[in-house]
Hints:
It is a single chain. The protein is α/β, with parallel strands linked by helices. The chain has helices at residues 13-25, 39-48, 58-62, 79-88, 106-116, 130-140, 175-183, 185-191, 284-298, 306-321, and strands at 4-9, 29-35, 53-55, 69-72, 92-95, 120-122, 147-157, 194-205, 208-220, 223-232, 234-245, 249-253, 264-270, 273-279. The protein has 10 helices and 14 strands. The strands form 2 sheets. The protein has an 8-stranded mixed β-sheet with strand order 8-9-10-7-11-12-13-14. Strands 3-2-1-4-5-6 form a 6-stranded parallel β-sheet, with helices on both faces. Helices cover 33% and strands 32% of the residues. The chain has 2 domains: 4-124 and 290-296, Rossmann fold; 130-281, Dihydrodipicolinate Reductase, domain 2 (2-Layer Sandwich). Helix 5 (106-116) links the parallel strand 5 (92-95) and strand 6 (120-122).
Amino acid sequence: MDAVNFGVLGASGFALAHTARAINEAEGARLAALATSSPAKAAPFQAFAPDLTVHDSYEALLADPSIEAVYIPLPNHLHVEWTLKALEAGKHVLCEKPIAMQADQIDALIEARDRTGQFATEAYMIVHHPQWQLVRRLIDEGAIGAVRHVDTVQTFDVGADVTNIRNRPETGGGSISDVGVYTYGSVRFAARAEPVELSSRIRRENGVDVWAHVVGTMAHDGAEFTFASTTSTRLPNRQEAVFQGEDGMIRVTVPCNAGVVGEAQVHLVRGDVTLVERFPTVRQYVLQAQNFVATVREGAPYPWSLEDAKGTQAMIDLVLANEM
Length: 324
């Protein structure tokens, strides 16, 4: 089976550190092209992918017939535009999260995906990690009984970096759009739940939210549980997710940046007994690329669809609409 040739739109630092490398290392995938007008930015990509073709524009990369799939790590406000352009150019698309800034924008992506027959999805890597697949299975199997409360948190500090896109309103910055996809979307995935009622308290600087606390209720098959979430781009690094049920608790360590800021673990607590599952070597970005290839080449099921992404964005929209 021929490898899927990927092109990357833009020489972003995140792509260099994580996803582009993972694509090049994933079985069945090959990092084949990069779009950037800067030779200096292209050089570190060429260091691990020496046969890389460098195009000086996004349009030139999309016109390259040797490229089957495109990875889009552009600033948030450009995701919809370039996902649509890539689909119309006949490319499969893996686009960074959030794939849109409002839920209804994803309808155009779904229409283009269905019309062109190309595969398109959000780069929501955590659902590929066995950590989160285990959490979902434990909840499905009733390991902690009915879920009664979930709280999630992800914080980090980029306050000193005024050029960071997370600090810029014109690029879709803010903690909610940047990491709310994790603190909200992971609960939707693991508990198969949707929000019922939410309210939020938000603190902003320069037009972007730098701290947000959300409380409310979510439900699965009519069974409700309380929910709380904190995101911030002005607090020290912290991330955790806790699912409390009638019969026990699941604590998820490093639920987002597994293997980067710490070891991914799942703690199942039932009474005085705690079982711990550790994942010290799993690389979720590589798994994401391999699952993408399996879907493109073999039609294998993929754990995160555009419809799933729309559900999380709808939750983000609800959070923003219900600020206290």
